[in-house]
Amino acid sequence: MTIKNQYKDILPFIGLVIFALLFACIGEWRPFFFDIDEPKYVTAALEMARSGDWLHPMFGGLPRMEKPPLPYWLAAPLFKIFGTAFSDGTLLFIARIPAILSSVLTIVATYLIGKRLYSTKTGILAALFLTIAPPFKIEGMMLKADIIYTAAVTWATYFYLRRFQGDKSTVNSLAASLATALGVLTKGPFALAPLAGYMMAELLREKPSKNYFISIIKRSGSVLRRETSTILLGVVLGCGPFLLWIWSASSPEINYFSGMISDAAKNTLHIENQALLFLGSFFFYLSEITIIFFPLGALSIGAIHTLLKYGQSKFSEKNIILWTSLFYLILCIFLYRLRAHRYFLPILPLLSVITVNWILTASRDKFFKKLFIFGNVLITGTAVFIGSAVLYTGQISTNLWENAQITNYSSALLPFALASFLLAAVTIISAAKYYHKPLTYLAISFLTLLAVYPFYFNAAPGIGPDNKFLPKPLIGVNLANYAEKNIPPNCLFIASESTLRNNPDLHFFMRNLTKRTEDGYLAALTFDVNNFNNLIMAPVVARTMLEANSSFAKASPLYKTISNNKFRKSVLILSGNELTQLYRNSIYFSKIFSAPAASIPIQGMNISWNNELFYVVFMKGL
């Protein structure tokens, strides 16, 4: 390869990485959480950095058993390096650096897969479109397991693709296993999907003479013997670090293994009619492919059809893409009880590659034209629907799931709606005019969608010109501001489990208050009228409540904090319903709801962008 040809590949790649990094940073300084799960990861990483205990992820001083520890391991060192004495927005940006880097790594892996399967042009364009795809951008803005998991399994797919194409080196196999191990440390054994896709591709490397089942049976013996080392490396090295962590972190008091099994069962247990559940999941993820993965998704139908139907390509290296994607879909449709955009994330890099290649290389026959027109009509309809919905409701989506009110019609709402309508018009015109010029069509589609993002972020929640949060102040911030001004140090802050389950961001926003007590926490306790009556008079009651509610209570940092500190008073954060129950049944009625007591209403927006009202209840003069 000449120096000129080397630069021909390297310069676009460098430009891609720079663009991906800059685009991934957009919006990351926003001082709020994009969904209900992100504060759990951020708070657990903060607590890990504060305690120095890297084996036991904690949330609110109690074991967080839902996910493996890699997201916390990536974020906690950043808090150690940079510190935590920052504003909410800056601290959240620091916490989201692993998500930013995972997004860029996924983009790079997508480019390499596209280049290896098809061409440098396909790799660059597929990576660019993935970068600006709304679900990828939004999920990539959050410190969560999903974007880190997506980066890991996309790289594992790339290394297994290299092996399928002839790179049998030990280094490549170890790299695939390492990527798998990172995925398992993020989301458990689901990260073995690329290995499963590779094995199925090997079993069907050659076109079957009669049917798939017979071909698999005939080839299975020789393939398994030849790939024994690959399977062992993938499973043993891939799952080894995760199992080692489970063994090291678990104890009779705190068993992370049983906790994760329980959480997995909860997320995969189907209590509804299974046929209806699977059918609903199928249509949900079909909409993900065609609509949510904008704008390529609507055109992916043609790409998938072509890949499945035509030629020997089904039995070449493209087979890995098909089988790996199929395993992800099986997990999404038949395993997960919940339906969520994030489960679809690992398919997007593979879908980008095959769809861009289809647009670039497919013959412009009548069938292509039908699929191309149908796809662009869907794209146009989606853009028109989004603009119309924003105009009608006055709301904009923050995470493709929940909507926030737009406060300014002329400077925020209307410009975004008009940008959506313009996107629809440009899409349909470019599709009609540049049907035979795929590069021009893709360039226009990319630049048009990219131009919509400034209007989106202008309309989305954020800090206004007067330094106030829009659309309304967050209730977590309001609570923290009130408590900082009016509550003395050395108080135990307590909220019910249900309140903190629905508002996990309270842990983050009140972190500076709880830190005033060494190793302090916002305690989550099961609401009980009698116990909460006693709590307001005696903070030590929280210790007894923890013992009764949890088998691992005595080993938790929250329990040790309550035991080792003599708190001056309890400060209860109650919902209106909880306060009413306490009011009606209080044995300390005259003390709590008379002059010596305070019951302060605090309003604001909760994490779902709905108006929320809490009451801060405490005894004066104690």
Describe this structure in words.
There is one protein chain. This protein is an alpha+beta fold. The chain has a 5-stranded mixed sheet with strand order 8-7-9-11-10, sandwiched between helices. Strands 1-2 form a two-stranded antiparallel sheet. The model has no long low-confidence stretch (mean pLDDT 86). The protein starts with a helix and ends with a strand. The chain folds into 3 domains: 3-361, no CATH class; 366-469; 475-619, no CATH class. The protein contains 29 helices and 11 strands. A hairpin with a 5-residue loop joins strand 10 and strand 11 (611-619).
Describe the structure concisely.
This protein has 622 residues and is α+β, with helices and mostly antiparallel strands.
What percent of residues adopt helix (DSSP H or I)?
55-70%
Q: Give the spatial strand order of the biggest sheet.
A: 8-7-9-11-10
How far the N terminus sits from the C terminus, by CA atoms, comes to: 80 Å
Coarse structural class? alpha+beta
Q: Which geometry do the CA atoms define?
A: globular
Query: Using DSSP, what is the number of strands?
Result: 11
- Domain count, please report it: 3
Number of helices: 29
Backbone CA Rg: 27 Å
Which stretches of 5+ consecutive residues score pLDDT under 50?
Answer: none
- Average pLDDT: 86
* Main sheet overview: 5 strands, mixed
Strand portion = 5-15%
Q: Secondary structure elements and their pairing?
A:
Elements: H1 3-25, H2 38-51, E1 58-59, E2 62-63, H3 70-82, H4 88-95, H5 97-117, H6 120-132, H7 134-139, H8 145-164, H9 170-187, H10 193-203, H11 212-226, H12 228-249, H13 256-268, H14 274-292, H15 297-309, H16 318-335, H17 347-361, H18 366-393, E3 395-397, E4 403-405, H19 409-433, H20 438-459, E5 462-463, E6 469-470, H21 475-486, E7 491-496, H22 497-502, H23 505-509, H24 511-514, E8 522-525, H25 529-537, H26 541-549, H27 557-564, E9 569-575, H28 576-585, H29 589-592, E10 597-605, E11 611-619
Parallel strand pairs: 7-8, 7-9
Antiparallel strand pairs: 1-2, 3-4, 5-6, 9-11, 10-11
Helix pairs in contact: 1-5, 1-6, 2-3, 5-6, 5-8, 5-17, 6-17, 6-20, 8-9, 8-10, 9-12, 10-16, 14-15, 14-16, 15-17, 15-18, 18-19, 19-20, 25-28
